[in-house]
Please model this.
Amino acid sequence: MTVSPIDRVAAKTPSGVARRIKGFSDRTIAWIFVAPTVFLLLAVNIFPLIWTIRLSFTNFRVNRPNNDVEWVGLRNYQRILTDPDVWNTMQATAHFLIWTITLQVLIGFILAFLINKKFKGNDMWTTIIVFPMMLSPAVVGNFWTFLYQPQIGLFNYVIAFFTGADPASFSMIGDVHLAPWAIVIADTWMWTPFVMLICLAGLRSIPDSIYEAAECDRASKWRQFWTITIPMALPFLMLAVLFRGIENFKMFDLVVQLTGGGPGNTTTLTSIDLKREAFEKWRTGYSSAYAVILFVTVFGLASIYVKALNKVKER
Amino acid sequence: MSFSATEPTRGTKWFAGIAVVLYAIITLIPLLWIVATGFKSPADSISYPPVVVFEPSLEGYVNLFTARTRATEDMLEAAGPAVTWYDKITRNRGTIISGPSRYGERFMNSIIIGFGSTLLCMILGTAAAYAFSRFKVPLKDDLLFFILSTRMMPPIAVAIPIFLMFRNLGLNDTHLGMILLYTAVNLSLSVWLLKGFIDEIPIEYEEAALIDGYTRFQAFYKVVLPQAATGIASTAIFCLIFAWNEYAFAVLLTSGTAQTAPPFIPTIIGTSGKDWPAVAAGATIFLVPVMVFTILLRKHLLRGITFGAVRK
Model:
């Protein structure tokens, strides 16, 4: 058992002094300090979650409060898991997740690697690169629709300039095949700096002495990269993937402003689909079940992943 | 020049520097485009090819802050000559200013809700973080994990019952409701970050204070708080930025009185189609403060975005 320094001091303090330390006991203070936070989180997070779980077994609809609420058991869950549309949105989400994470890890790591070469002014440029991720995704996403406009959009103009295609001939957010890539590009633009910052911390955590030892052993730079840099930065990379995975699984604001889930259902990520079911079709019971499924998925995947991450860290 | 096996060569530095600067410039273009579009006239904003050099115009900003009605010749004459510079801009387009737009209100809402929730979040978060850092709290690790896990929930997933709950409590579309909600959302961040900052303050300071006869509360606010000031300030900025940028809850739970700027800016439209200069002007005013805060935060950025998991 660990003894905190406070206890040690308390044990050493003569009882006369101890009695003079007035006020509440530490235990009481701890509760006074923690209780409001726990209470607010219970009220705004856990209570709604339990309510969601309860609603998910009913056919309740918010817009018809006078209808009888029936207990339907697992029917909502069954309907969701057998609905091909839901599987389509899952596929769209998977496409979005896989590509954004791949691109961000790749570009983010290369950037971090380059910044770690400590050229003059690297701090300033790091701060500049970080700007996009600090901004409001909804406001920025909305502006990306302007960049993506056929004919007048800057993005189309630049692509046309380099490829010679007609800038009016393609529409990033109007085309079924291009729209999934439009959201991947915008998200990568926005969140690559996040991965970069974490990778940079990983690279800076590697002590110089290891490289010096490798240099003495005449290990080539290439070999040093694969046997020192990558393994030692791996826990950081995995952490970056975890954060981006959770965040992009929840993705709503950027994409809903950019494409609104269209054209068709090609960019309808799960959060967007859930919003439609819950707040446009008002199928409250059904969407509650949907929410529970999403939450269990993200929580389950994250737990498995954290276990793997800890294994890598232990090595 | 001292030789070191690990110091990159000059050539490497040059190459790395140029590559990073190039990336930075490319990544900045969309942001610069927002700022530039805000100062373009409507014609310039949608011209082909896109113009980089243009005559700056404040029409976007005027349109952002005003509501206008299309006026006939008679109405223009009846209104008399334009007095102010912004009147002149709208008269040139054949419109008359009929009043202020809602942007000012929405921006104020963002400020009230952002600062309100940040303040509340810092009060609750500092206290909880101190307790977690210094005391034996029963189930400490479970509680800390529970606090973090609240962040994993997709906002839309909890929005349904929160919507119902707020409706029953009369909190829908109110400042208080949004402040409480954003406080709860940001508590996980503030508790985890602040616990890290307080952990770094040597416990000996407080022990000395306690032996000198301070009570726990006195030791907390006279010794720990000043020591943690930088940490508290940077955590507060993070909370402020997250509340400032939040969109999902804002668009679902607010419509009129408490709507913040993010759901409002995309809805700005002009008399004929989307008024991009006005949208860009609104976005510029909304985004620039965050950029300034990012520069202030640069030393603690990494800690903030990883909830204190990576400290450097």
